[in-house]
Design brief:
The structure is a single chain. By secondary structure, this protein is an alpha+beta fold. Helices cover 13% and strands 31% of the residues. The strands form eight sheets. The protein has a nine-stranded parallel sheet with strand order 2-10-9-8-7-6-5-4-3, with helices on one face. Strands 12, 15, 16, 19, 20, 21 and 24 form a seven-stranded mixed sheet that branches. The longest helix is centred in the first third of the chain and has 16 residues. The chain is globular.
Length: 728
């Protein structure tokens, strides 16, 4: 059969089923004022492009560089180019970067895209502290940079690329102890990197003198320098790998006051790095003390560190003595300074209040407001995509809005007042309203990825990657009944479509309504339950195992009856994953998340060598406590066999639009599958010569029902009604 689509068609959604309304801080009641109040959540919020970096020492080899697969809010790749440099490879020969290098780098970035990560990069000729590790000529350094630009890899992944450290030269790429680490060479390197890295992605330098040289200033003049908005100079930040190590941060600053003021002005560039590893030396100075470092973190807009915050901060209690003017951090009184610093890296948006009208007619304009305070050290550096989502009974519509969280600066409180033209296809009733902002170009199959979570209690929806704002009653109206446009009032509208969560699994360690159903239960012994289901690429397992372990280790075991192999994997509480066939298949794409007694696994078919019809026996999930001698604390096992039956999710909810006689209507197929063939039906009759993902109906004269039969590239088949159209 001829394959029609090479990729996943149009858009797809990886949502789980209806979430629980009861968790929201204010319930919708008929007699309320539609004003919703929210409180700050104390705790670490996982958000794209900020916080702790997941640092990967990316090893390369001439002709044999391997791809990497890492996950994190910001994965910082230290890419070792020493095999290509005569100063470090022991061969005395310089090599150009080769095709395998770039193919593997692309595969690495694609892995990060597919697991919801953002990335950052430092290319470097040394990872061992070797002096003079660079190529024989600076021209070869520039050639490597030119090759990186010409490859297009940074351009193609710029939507998830948060920053690039200028790196390259010196020990560890920290631009000291090398052949080309004088300020003149570093300024030339910065210029080359600003040309190589696609705008507006920031490029960071190791010390401020490099930037001063680049813009033609004396270093002592930096405090008064304000870069022109949108210029290359505005993109330059700092990676501080001696952070809080002394009064100069181990030579980072010549004048701390002047150069931190320069950083304060660079609100569209990144500042972050590594805390000094020598706390005893740092304690000879006052820079690290909470009363000094916290105000400076706000001043410099600290966005990330590599996780090595000084442990001694756990001995300091955050209270009003550490307050900074313009910020209300009272929610953190009594917490450790360590926790305060960790939780305020980058932006930290606290939703405080929202206001909605009691009712609005479908097809009309909804005017509402929501107020956000940024208590974090920084504002977002990467542009975020903003949407408003309306949900009712597991079905939803969405629209883009022109808000810009990049301008929700640290310490600011912003009242946002969108006006949304609603589509007429929204049925009467109560609809929940969400705000979603996200980083990157995310297809609907990855809709929850790289989304920004507000630091407020009871607002986050993992499946949507969106924050609950409140709810509104939509009332029926005969006016504009055929007007299904949605968007900001006064701006160009787009046709609205109605989506459904389906039963798609989101691996988050939590169970939402409809995500796991009774049909998915494969064993239940009264105390422990085990669930299983499949899509076309993964086996999903969810175990409910009360365990009481302090440091739970969740183990999965099963035997493939087709090949007789037994597969065992586990995830420790610190995130370490073991897989007994890792040397044969690897475990790229594996996801394991848990909370309390629940654990969810997404296990790619290839790991267990599964195909359609493969039978698994002995499926079990057990829990051990790694803090108590790896003692077993609970287990559940399926005594029968489980047969692999791939499936896919169709995310179209049945739309019931009204159209004017003679008008047209477009129906867009939404699925998470790689589709091979679509057959459209109109009132049960196949529509000839229509096989794309969009069915365009013209000159509609009578009521009609539209359905589709979808066959995927992997052989799964599904047929469903997509629209019931009424003619006015």
């Amino acid at each position: 059969m001829k394959r029609i689509f090479k990729g996943k068609i149009l858009f797809a959604i990886s949502f789980i089923a209806v979430f629980i309304a009861a968790v929201f801080s204010v319930a919708c009641k008929e007699d309320d004022t539609r004003t919703f109040k929210f409180t700050e959540q104390v705790g670490t919020i996982s958000n794209p492009g900020i916080g702790y970096t997941t640092t990967d020492w990316y090893h390369t080899a001439v002709g044999d560089t391997k791809p990497r697969d890492r996950q994190g809010d910001i994965v910082l790749f230290f890419i070792d180019l020493s095999p290509f440099s005569s100063g470090a490879n022991g061969k005395g020969v310089d090599y150009d970067l080769d095709e395998r290098f770039f193919t593997s780098l692309r595969a690495t970035f694609e892995n990060c895209r597919n697991n919801g990560s953002t990335v950052a990069v430092r290319f470097r000729y040394d990872e061992n502290g070797k002096s003079d590790p660079e190529p024989a000529s600076f021209g070869q350094v520039l050639k490597h940079i030119s090759q990186i630009k010409s490859s297009g890899v940074l351009q193609d992944y710029k939507d998830i690329l948060m920053f690039v450290e200028s790196g390259f030269v010196g020990k560890w790429g920290e631009q000291h102890g090398g052949k080309y680490t004088d300020v003149e060479h570093k300024a030339k390197l910065l210029k080359a990197m600003l040309d190589c890295v696609p705008s507006p992605v920031p490029v960071t330098v190791r010390t401020p003198d490099t930037f001063a040289k680049y813009v033609g200033l004396d270093r002592s003049e930096l405090a008064d320098y304000v870069a022109e908005k949108g210029s290359d100079a505005a993109r330059v930040g700092l990676y501080n790998d001696g952070y809080m190590g002394s009064d100069t941060d181990l030579g980072t600053y010549a004048n701390r006051e002047i150069e931190t003021q320069w950083l304060s002005n660079q609100t569209s560039a990144y500042f972050g790095g590594e805390f000094s590893g020598n706390i005893e030396f740092a304690q000879k100075y006052d820079a690290y003390l909470p009363e000094n470092c916290i105000p400076e973190m706000y001043k410099t807009h600290l966005s990330y560190v590599n996780g090595n915050i000084f442990e001694l901060y756990k001995d300091y209690v955050f209270d009003k003595n550490y307050d900074v003017a313009g910020f209300d951090n009272s929610a953190y009184y009594g917490q450790s300074v360590f926790r305060f610093i960790r939780d305020h890296l980058g932006y930290r948006f606290v939703l405080t209040e929202s206001s909605f009208p009691k009712t609005v007619e479908r097809g009309g304009n909804l005017e509402f407001s929501f107020t956000v305070t940024n208590n974090g050290f920084a504002n977002p550096i990467k542009k975020q995509n903003c949407e408003v989502i309306f949900e009712k009974d597991g079905r939803f519509v969405k629209t883009e809005v022109g808000l810009d969280p990049m301008q929700w600066y640290s310490g600011s409180t912003v009242k946002n007042q969108p006006v949304i033209k609603l589509p007429a296809l929204m049925e009467a009733g109560e609809w929940k309203v969400y705000f979603k902002s996200s980083v990157g170009v995310n297809p609907l199959s990855q809709y929850g990825f790289r989304s920004v979570r507000f630091a407020s209690n009871d607002v986050w929806n993992e499946a949507l990657g969106a924050n609950y704002l409140g709810c509104v009653e939509i009332t029926a109206s005969e006016d504009n009944i055929a007007d299904n446009g949605i968007g900001e009032a006064g701006k160009a509208l787009k046709p609205a479509h109605l989506y459904s969560f389906g039963g798609k699994t989101v691996i988050d360690g939590a169970r939402s309504d409809g995500e796991w159903t009774e049909d998915d239960v494969i064993t239940d012994n009264g105390q422990y339950r085990l669930y299983a289901k499949c899509d076309e690429d993964n086996l999903y397992i969810m175990a409910d195992v009360p365990h009481g372990a302090k440091a739970p280790v969740f183990n999965f075991r099963a035997q493939n009856e087709d090949n007789g192999q037994t597969y065992w994997l586990y995830r420790q509480s610190n995130g370490f994953i073991y897989f007994n066939h890792d040397d044969k298949t690897g475990h790229a794409g594996l996801s394991v998340k848990y909370s309390d007694n629940l654990c969810e696994f997404a296990i790619p078919f290839y790991m267990l060598e599964l195909t359609n019809g493969t039978t698994l026996s002995g499926i079990s999930v057990s829990v051990q406590d790694s803090e108590d001698g790896w003692k077993g604390t609970g287990s559940v096992k399926l005594d029968e066999s489980y047969e692999i039956r791939p499936d896919f999710t169709l995310f179209n909810a049945v739309e019931k639009p009204t159209v004017s006689r003679g008008d047209g209507y477009d129906i867009v197929l939404e699925t998470d599958a790689d589709v091979k063939e679509v057959v459209w039906y109109l009132d049960g009759r196949a529509v000839e010569d229509e096989s794309s993902a969009i069915l365009k109906l013209f000159n509609i004269q009578t009521d009609c029902v539209v359905s589709a039969k979808i066959t995927t590239a992997k052989g799964s088949v599904k047929q469903a009604v997509l629209a019931e159209i009424k003619v006015k």
